[in-house]
Amino acid sequence: MILQDNSKTGYLNLYFQVHQPRRLGQFSFFDIGTGRDYFDDGLNQVIMQRVAKNCYLPTNRLLLKFIRKYPDIRIAFSISGSALKQMEVFAPAALESFQLLAATGSVEFLSETYYHSLSSIFSKKEFQAQVKKHADQLKDLFGTSPSVFRNTELIYNDEINEAISDLGFTGVITDGIEKILGERSPNYLYQHSEQSTRIFLRNYRLSDDIAFRFMQKDWPEWPLTAAKYMTWVEAALKKDELITLGMDYETFGEHQKADTGIFSFLEALLSRLGKHKRIKMIGPSQAIAMLNPVDTLTVPNSISWADEKRDLSAWLGNDIQQDAFESLKKLERTVKSIDNPLLLNIWRWLQTSDHFYYMSTKTGNDGGVHSYFSPYASPYAAFMNYMNVMTDFSLQVEEMEKEQRETKKSFDFQQTGRPECIDKKWHPESLTF
Amino acid sequence: MKVLMFGWEFPPHISGGLGTACFGLTESLAKKDTQILFVIPKTDSETIEEGLQIRSASNVEIPINSILKHKLHHNPPYEEGEISEIVSNLRVIGIDANPAPYTTQHVLSDAVSLSSWNYQFPEKNITLSSDLDTAQTTEEATVRYQFSGGYGPNLLEEVERYGLAGAEIARQEKFDIIHAHDWLTYQAGIAAKKISGKPLVVHVHATEFDRAGINADAPIFKMEHEGMEAADKIIAVSEWTKNIIINNYSIPADKITVVHNGALPAKQNEDIQRPPIGKPIITFLGRITFQKGPEYFVDAAEKVLSKFPDVHFVMAGSGDLLPKIIERVARLRIASHFHFTGFLKGEKVDRLWSVTNIYVMPSVSEPFGISPLEAVQAGVPVIVSHQSGVAEVMEHIVKIDFWNVEALADAMCNILKYQSLSNTLRNKSKEEISGITWELAAKKINALYHDLTR
User: Fold this and answer.
1) Which of residues 376-415 of A touch B (CB under 8 A)?
2) Which of A364, A367, B142, B156 could disulfide-link to B61, CB 3.0 to 4.6 Å?
3) pLDDT tens figures, A126-139
4) In whole angstroms, how far apart are CA B316 and each of B219, B371, B385, B399?
5) How far apart are CA A104 and CA B358, in angstroms?
6) Are A385 and A39 in contact (CB under 8 A)?
């Protein structure tokens, strides 16, 4: 029997997910073929600016202050390409505040797909292309290259691990649910049975205590103080090695407004963590360098952090979701056969998982979360709007494929390859994305 | 708990949702140890089942004296004190004066009934009559009114007479509480409350504002208002209706309780004769009146036809807007795709559902809307307007604003185009409807009865 070692160091990896989808505009069946733009970038601008004001700017300011005060603080960010692009266009000040954080050296940026898409479950090639596009964006904006991957909504399976290992990533984050762990603790690094990629498991209980339950007044632990929360973290790390906490960054100031006390909680938590004797904050790459995996983890079926079922049912749980997803998927070959980067880009924007999330017909707690995020009155409205866009897009794709075929046939060497009318159909603002 | 309940419709004498609602509610209340005496204008068989007794107002012997008192009371310049004196002097003349114009036969032409606001065509050869029991002495003379029980041109007169019959029943019977369904029976409810001193609940299934918008009929509005004022508690069938009662009838919100309707369990009808059509069918089923928004259906149909030239549209129902709607359809040159069936009920409705791909209820103002529930039970995907009570209780139906013709057409096109959408709507709404029961409504209403009689 090994005696408890009180001087043992425990590690805490805290990552925040930043994401904003590029939402579609109202697109009726009768808009099909009219050349109307798909995206409601007016709405997207309003939302991006609101969330920047409520969350990104104040929380980044807070983090910067605490990082300066406590140099041991480590934070990781997973910011979708979709969010970064919209921030760049609609809220440049928010982007700059992330760049300031990047410059401290205490912040690590994680990899994900640019479009926050479901590509990982339908096309390895497409998935890897989107991961690379996001990595290029991180390099561009923050001057860093990510080494740890965190997929859309923590979707994970063995194949995804293999796909990102191919790309040279050394670690991946997913949710620490019983379904894959059994009796084992999420508070360690794990490993794929054949790949060396390390697997981080989010401690969902401790994460959701902050992300969801913090503001729930009927929660027996309400009100949650940093002191109380730290006793839970300390208790877990007495025995275990590494706690991974992961949550939407919008937890701070947007999902839970300032008047819930969430900012004071974060301040108190960071000052305790910043000077803690036995608990060290650690970035994911650093954790991989310092800690060893305790076991292998086999995940044949996709898991995620969404809904009570923690599988793909949040996006593909019903017929309308699957139908919409199929019609998106089946365009891959044709879209890629046409030499038109604009077209490919729009097809990718239509892959964002949120479009499918809005079509969920789940009820109860899950249904409540889905409808909180949805700009639509119902899953059916979301489906109809998406399918109208998809039908219009398919027609455009067909038309272009036909034109390309005819162009090739005509042996017209002066033909530039992209008919002028197409460029007019894709509105100039699409270019910025 | 014994309830004296007044209603205008009860199966088999139904023409709209009111009768279905009264049936669903009383059946569930009776299961909860509540005894109901239900008075309807006319029925062929006065039944007594466990907990539920049906009485026909047509069989009530109303003393001439009380009719005269009522008449004089409602005809100034007579004051209360003078009335009994006048009654003793004039009662014989009164008998003659009262029912005379209505004992003649009225044969209602279609033209007349189309121009009246109606739920259905009144049957032809209906007589409004009263049987005077001449065998009795004049002091004890009574009269029995023969009600048509429909919604014909003599409706206001029938409503008044039903009130008298209701008052007489209140004198004869013992009960703890009075419950009156819609304005047609409010006068009976008010009279019963005056006579018995028991609390009155009025149940608002529809208001004149739903039916007629700003062109509300003044006498009907007045009767509705009197009923709501006299009531101890008002039951509204939806939040939508509650808001109309607050805003248009100036009733304080705390006097109104919302009790959503339930859905009756679906009848299993295996051998429905499916009409051999084979084309997609979009159905409108309801009165063709301002309230139901038939013109939005037609305008959306035109748009749908521009994309799906094979679709056919069935409009089942009748009402004062029917001629205008037919004209509109013809003007748009889409008449070959439109089928007007007139009022349907029973098995004919089941047959219509069996070939319907989409049911649409584009109501301008729908207090609840029972037919969408029936469509759901028949496995038909449903589109309703947000301006309806049913939109408050059902998630798995498509909801649009009634005026948004483009959104309506958009929804129709999508359901036609995507099997996954119609399947999901069909399956999920069927699941959902099992939770919308009359037991739930009866439970709330029982609680309300107990509150009022405590």
Assistant:
1) 377-378, 380-381, 383-384, 387-388, 391
2) B142
3) 999 999 999 999 99
4) 29, 12, 18, 21
5) 60
6) no
